[in-house]
């Protein structure tokens, strides 16, 4: 019987990455020198599972590397070695190395083994120290390793598969201990009509010749002790009783290698179901997503309601059209709209994941950087169960890394300076997430020295970003750190100081229709606040008419809409009109002019102005009319056509027409209102002339 193991690769990779995440989390939190056996066992089990799985699927580069790592962990958990900081650092590097190897294998590429071989050499050097220290006897003596042959009877209980265990993996690990012969017995398999595919009816007998202790065999089966009958006995010669044993139980097959060992089709079926389930939830960068059963149940209920409504409308359609049927039809359509909206919300909830998936990468990051900088740092994580769309989560991770690295490098002081300032020598970085309206707010806070406003201002002047005579508030000066090429670092390091970080952060966040701002107090600390939409797939928008065209303006960007008082309009330069609105000057952008539309209303007093905000700048968009507000499903122009300046995407309206979604930031650039290399609008640079 031949089994195509490649169908289970994706399950193996996902579970291996989860195991590595668990190892990293425990290693970051464990205190070297402590006897936290439960934590050590958790780390060991994760490595053990990866080794077993990789050996089963023939990924020898992973299994060979994990073997030496597992040996060191085994000695630590048995008390033979003390867990030191050196070991923790080495194990963390090994986690990174295993991730690299697994990603290469997942991409069906040949892994680069240079780092793995280097780390493996370090592990072998550590493990070899103890053996070389022991007396070895005469140098001429040839040491023969004693071997024993064990008979292992393994009879799982019927519910074994339901516990998530797979005999194939255990057989594979047995094969790594030595030479093995495997027999599978099918005498307990019932008639096909009574056969339950999720139950195990097979049992096995193994003859294993190995130089390992019996405890190594017991360790393989320790996870299924309560789910199977297991006996291990030392027997005589190798395989000498194999033929005789078949008399008491008819063997299904005898096979020489562990990877060929027979497993129940039921187990394969369960794994296959898992694979197909994961394939069906494929997404952009990760090929699976975990969904709570409550979300699935809610979705099924909504579909049920939709089916009932559809049946009701079909019945009405078969009746004669009367006043009562029209009323019933209207009620049915209203119910259909309600059900559709509920279904839409429930479907979107499936893509929502807790932000802990992003937060989980920062304990390791903070640990590594704080060691490099010789700083003591405590990381606090708040609001880890706050949910947001998976696509948003994947794209916000890198900007957050930039902000945390800057807090560690520039924000927090070294312990000596903190003590001198009357602070705790251990600095604190806090990540917090919470919902606010239709957005998610993420805060990166530190209790460091805060931003040096005067230094930022002077650097901006030196770099030609602002003029020496310009008067800016503290908040305005702090915002300068987001300008391209700005950095106050005196030396370039691998942590920060290249002048390419903060402007990229803002640009990436704006690409998600979000915003980032900073607040700081000298000696107290800084807070970076990121605001993002919960999802990128659906947008609350205001439909506006420009000539014969309909555009959508994101509601989150709109400040207000108004009719223009022509007496408050002034001209700046040749063709820029500005409206004085409550002591602010709002530049007026004519959409019909920017998008080259004919037939639009051009008289300012006969149009409407939609005041929008982007990058802390307000502008007014001139439109012919305001239409409805509605949620729209965003379709990417870049993926389906090409990038269009001033447009962030498109959607299909209820009447089948395509409507473009306005990108406020891109529109400002397209209009020429902002000069290259400047963060100010022209109206701000000529504010005195307007006044």
From TrEMBL:
Which CDD domains does the entry link to? CheA_reg, HATPase_CheA-like, HPT
Question: What is its EC class?
Answer: transferase
Q: Which domain of life is it from?
A: Bacteria
Q: Does the keyword Flavoprotein apply?
A: no
- Residue positions, PTM Phosphohistidine: 48
Q: Which Gene3D superfamilies match?
A: Histidine kinase CheA-like, homodimeric domain (1.10.287.560), Histidine kinase-like ATPase, C-terminal domain (3.30.565.10), HPT domain (1.20.120.160), SH3 Domains (2.30.30.40)
What is the annotated role of this protein in its UniProt record? Involved in the transmission of sensory signals from the chemoreceptors to the flagellar motors. CheA is autophosphorylated; it can transfer its phosphate group to either CheB or CheY.
The molecule here is called: Chemotaxis protein CheA
List UniProt keywords, sorted A-Z: ATP-binding, Chemotaxis, Kinase, Nucleotide-binding, Phosphoprotein, Transferase, Two-component regulatory system
Record domain Histidine kinase: where: 243-536
Q: Where is the CheW-like domain?
A: 538-673
| SUPFAM superfamilies named in the record | ATPase domain of HSP90 chaperone/DNA topoisomerase II/histidine kinase (SSF55874), CheW-like (SSF50341), Histidine-containing phosphotransfer domain, HPT domain (SSF47226), Homodimeric domain of signal transducing histidine kinase (SSF47384)
Which EC number(s) does the record attach to this protein? 2.7.13.3
User: Which reactions does this protein catalyse?
Assistant: ATP + protein L-histidine = ADP + protein N-phospho-L-histidine
Give one GO term, molecular function aspect: ATP binding
Q: Which organism is it from?
A: Pseudoalteromonas amylolytica
Q: Name one GO biological process term.
A: chemotaxis
Q: Name one GO cellular component term.
A: cytoplasm
Q: Where is the HPt domain?
A: 1-105
Q: Where are the transmembrane segments?
A: none
């Amino acid at each position: 019987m031949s089994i195509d193991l490649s169908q289970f690769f994706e399950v193996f990779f996902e579970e291996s990455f989860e195991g590595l995440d668990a190892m990293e989390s425990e290693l970051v939190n464990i205190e070297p020198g402590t006897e936290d056996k439960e934590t050590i066992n958790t780390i060991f089990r994760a490595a053990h599972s990866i080794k077993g799985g990789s050996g089963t699927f023939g990924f020898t580069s992973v299994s060979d590397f994990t073997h030496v790592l597992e040996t060191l962990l085994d000695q630590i958990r048995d008390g033979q070695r003390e867990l030191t900081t050196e070991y923790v650092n080495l194990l963390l590097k090994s986690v990174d190395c295993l991730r690299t190897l697994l990603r290469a294998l997942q991409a069906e590429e040949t892994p680069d083994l240079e780092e793995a071989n280097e780390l493996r050499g370090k592990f072998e050097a550590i493990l070899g120290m103890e053996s070389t220290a022991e007396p070895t006897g005469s140098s001429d003596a040839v040491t023969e390793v004693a071997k024993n042959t064990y008979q292992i009877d393994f009879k799982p209980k019927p519910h074994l598969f339901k516990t998530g265990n797979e005999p194939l993996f255990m057989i594979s690990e047995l094969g790594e201990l030595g030479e093995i012969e495997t027999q599978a017995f099918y005498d307990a398999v019932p008639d096909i009509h009574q056969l339950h595919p999720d139950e195990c009816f097979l049992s096995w007998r193994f003859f294993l010749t190995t130089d390992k202790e019996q405890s190594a065999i017991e360790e393989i089966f320790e996870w299924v002790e309560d789910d199977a009958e297991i006996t291990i006995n030392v027997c005589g010669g190798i395989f000498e009783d194999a033929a005789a044993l078949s008399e008491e139980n008819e063997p299904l097959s005898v096979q020489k290698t562990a990877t060929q060992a027979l497993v129940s089709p039921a187990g394969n079926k369960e794994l296959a179901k898992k694979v197909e389930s994961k394939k069906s939830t494929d997404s952009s960068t990760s090929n699976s997503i975990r969904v709570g059963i409550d979300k699935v149940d809610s979705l099924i209920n909504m579909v049920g309601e939709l089916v009932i409504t559809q049946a009701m409308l079909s019945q009405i359609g078969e009746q004669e059209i009367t006043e009562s049927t029209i009323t019933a039809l209207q009620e049915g359509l209203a119910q259909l709209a309600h059900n559709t909206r509920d279904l839409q919300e429930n479907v979107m909830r499936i893509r929502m994941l807790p932000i802990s998936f992003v937060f989980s990468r920062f304990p390791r990051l903070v640990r590594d950087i704080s060691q490099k900088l010789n700083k003591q740092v405590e990381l606090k994580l708040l609001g880890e169960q706050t949910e947001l769309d998976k696509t948003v989560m994947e794209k916000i991770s890198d900007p957050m890394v930039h902000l945390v690295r800057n807090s560690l490098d520039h924000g927090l002081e070294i312990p000596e300076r903190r003590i001198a300032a009357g602070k705790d020598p251990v600095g604190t970085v806090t990540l917090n997430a919470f919902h606010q309206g239709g957005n998610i707010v993420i805060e990166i806070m530190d209790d460091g020295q805060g931003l040096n406003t005067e230094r930022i201002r002077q650097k901006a002047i030196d770099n030609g970003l602002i003029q020496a005579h310009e008067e800016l508030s503290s908040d305005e000066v702090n915002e300068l750190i987001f300008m391209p090429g700005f950095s106050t670092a005196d030396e370039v390091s691998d942590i920060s100081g290249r002048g390419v970080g903060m402007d990229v952060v803002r640009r990436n966040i704006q690409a998600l229709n979000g915003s980032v701002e900073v607040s700081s107090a000298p000696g107290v600390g800084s807070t970076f606040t990121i605001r993002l939409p919960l999802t990128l797939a659906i947008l609350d928008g205001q439909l506006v008419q420009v000539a014969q065209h309909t555009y959508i303006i994101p509601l989150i960007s709109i400040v207000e809409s108004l009719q223009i008082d022509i007496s408050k309009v002034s001209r700046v330069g040749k063709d820029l009109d500005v409206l004085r609105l409550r002591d602010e000057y709002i530049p007026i952008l004519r959409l019909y002019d920017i998008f080259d539309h004919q037939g639009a209303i051009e008289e300012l007093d006969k149009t409407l102005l939609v005041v929008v905000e982007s990058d802390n700048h307000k502008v007014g968009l001139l439109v012919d009319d305001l239409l409805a507000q509605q949620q729209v499903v965003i379709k990417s122009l870049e993926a389906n056509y090409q990038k269009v300046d001033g447009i962030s995407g498109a959607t299909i309206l209820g009447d089948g027409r395509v409507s473009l979604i306005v990108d406020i930031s891109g529109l400002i650039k397209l209009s020429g209102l902002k000069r290259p290399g400047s963060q100010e609008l022209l109206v701000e640079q000529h504010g005195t002339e307007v006044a």
